[in-house]
Write a structure and sequence with these properties.
It is a single chain. The protein is mostly helical. It is built from 20 helices and four strands. It has a four-stranded mixed sheet. A hairpin with a 2-residue loop joins strand 3 and strand 4. The longest helix has 34 residues. The chain is globular, with a radius of gyration of 24 Å.
């Protein structure tokens, strides 16, 4: 299928993505995305990532956010547009991938639609780093598809394109190593004994972005920061995971299985209706992504985004093949497919209707936006050029909006208080928060949008904050504090002399 010959299909996918993710254009920025925007903003103003702000994601992710902020000045709209573009691109690439593998246009369209719907869960505001891996992973596979042995050797430039796309996926998150491993399998299937040269080309292309970044950081004198963020922090976290694997949160696992249940059920049916090397590659892709999630040991919605693309492809193949059956099996499957995906359609219809009612009838966005804007406008009114601000558990990009400098290299409080990230930091994050509070910032902006572990730690600090600050505004889950008066620091030491630590 030629892309130019299917403009209606492509346009329909883009339109569906905009519809499903429409709420994200009018929602406050998520904590993780706000941190990426903050690093990107610093980069646009001359400061390389990792120098002023600690993060462990590769620079390519911040480059994408910087590009979006350079085109669209509003951070919330820029990030929503970037995430929407990534989802639409992945849907279109899945269409092209399945069509080139011989599964047909119908299967490709279904894969794209499934992906757009499944990534639109959580009110359509999923915009974490994992979301940006999928388009590059699909592009890498598309460059080498179909996955059957070639009668004549594939041109090396296609291997180079696949390797470069995989390298870009690694620039989003290092968990995209699953894509590199998948390409190794594909090269083995296609080239056989002649796989050495193609493998070398792919590996060189994968490493090219990191090599270029290492040169840039070396010339800027920050090569140590680059390697500590991209290699050292990841190795420390991996060693901690292997030494003591974290227990799976049953509540979050059950929630994500509910969201992805229809796609999982359809994927399980694939071996009964389609058997080929292409299906084997897709199943391996799914297995590798699941392995990465299990290795990370976290099962929040964002961490499962990598799994959705192969799940969507396999589910679409199952639907397409079973729809070609005749008689009773086809009827049974039609009822099954409609039932399993009904909840996704209902969810998005309900959320869009609610959003439209607020925007058209009540002329507000509902949800958290108005509450958040009230606090932000009050802070903008009070915050003078000589005043300092510390943001706890809210979006770090607010520092850039207010034109104030973050008092710490760790502006995203969840990184400091999340127990799983402590091995990467190398210290107890509560000590860094206490260090900032000793400087007595004029204002504290404290949110309540974090995970349970972070919220528990913030509750422990509430007495400390109450002794030094007074509440000037509390709206929804966000509170604005002002310093009572600059005086001696009220230590959080307990009566027995021990420092306060996070609750277990």
């Amino acid at each position: 299928m030629k892309l130019v010959s299917r403009p209606i299909i492509v346009g329909g996918m883009i339109g569906l993505t905009l519809l499903v993710r429409s709420r994200s254009f009018d929602s406050p920025i998520d904590g993780n995305a706000g941190l990426y925007a903050h690093v990107a903003y610093d980069w646009l103003h001359g400061s390389l990532p990792y120098v002023n702000t600690w993060e462990y994601k590769p620079p390519g992710l911040f480059a994408l956010f910087a590009l979006a902020l350079a085109v669209i000045s509003s951070p919330s709209i820029a990030i929503a547009a970037l995430a929407t573009l990534a989802v639409a691109a992945t849907g279109i690439l899945l269409l092209l991938l399945l069509d080139r593998c011989g599964f047909g246009t119908r299967a490709g369209v279904l894969a794209g639609v499934f992906y757009i719907l499944l990534t639109g869960e959580d009110a359509g505001i999923l915009d974490d780093a994992e979301l940006y891996i999928a388009p590059f992973a699909c592009a890498a596979l598309l460059a080498l598809a179909p996955f059957r042995p070639d009668r004549k050797p594939l041109r090396l430039w296609r291997y180079a394109v696949a390797g470069l796309a995989a390298g870009c996926a690694l620039q989003m998150m290092l968990t995209a190593l699953s894509v590199v491993a998948l390409l190794a399998l594909v090269i083995g299937l296609k080239a056989g004994r002649r796989a050495l040269v193609p493998m070398a080309v792919v590996l060189l292309a994968v490493c090219a972005p990191f090599a270029l970044e290492a040169v840039v950081y070396s010339r800027a004198g920050h090569l140590t920061d680059f390697f500590d963020a991209n290699v050292g922090a990841t190795l420390r976290r991996l060693a901690s995971r292997l030494a003591r694997p974290p227990p799976a949160d049953k509540i979050y696992v059950a929630e994500q299985l509910r969201l992805l249940g229809p796609a999982i059920e359809l994927a399980v049916l694939v071996p009964f209706v389609a058997r080929s090397r292409d299906v084997l590659v897709l199943w391996t892709w799914l297995a590798l992504e699941i392995a990465m999630v299990v290795l990370a040991g976290e099962y929040y919605a964002a961490h499962l985004l990598q799994v959705i693309a192969p799940l969507s492809a396999l589910g679409a193949i199952a639907v397409d093949r079973l729809c070609t059956m005749t008689g009773r099996p086809r009827l049974i499957f039609a009822i099954f497919a409609l039932g399993t995906f009904a909840m996704h359609g209902y969810f998005h219809a309900r959320e869009f209707a609610k959003f439209a009612y607020h925007r058209v009838v009540l002329r507000d966005s509902g949800y958290e936006r108005e509450h958040f804007d009230i606090v932000r406008n009050e802070l903008r009114r009070r915050l003078a050029s000589d005043r300092s601000l510390y943001i706890i558990d809210e979006s770090a990009e607010l520092y850039d909006e207010f034109g104030v400098r973050s008092p710490t290299r760790y502006p995203f409080t969840a990184d400091l208080l999340e127990p799983s990230l402590e091995p990467m930091l190398g210290f107890d994050g509560i000590d860094e928060i206490e260090r900032v509070l000793r400087t007595q910032p004029h204002y504290l902006l404290v949110g309540r949008r974090s995970r349970r572990e972070v919220a528990a730690s913030l509750h422990v600090m509430s007495d400390l904050i109450a002794r030094q600050y007074r509440v000037i505004l509390r709206v929804g889950r966000t509170t604005l504090y002002a310093l009572r008066m600059r005086r001696g620091y009220a230590s959080s030491k307990r009566p027995n002399g021990g420092f306060m630590h996070r609750s277990s």
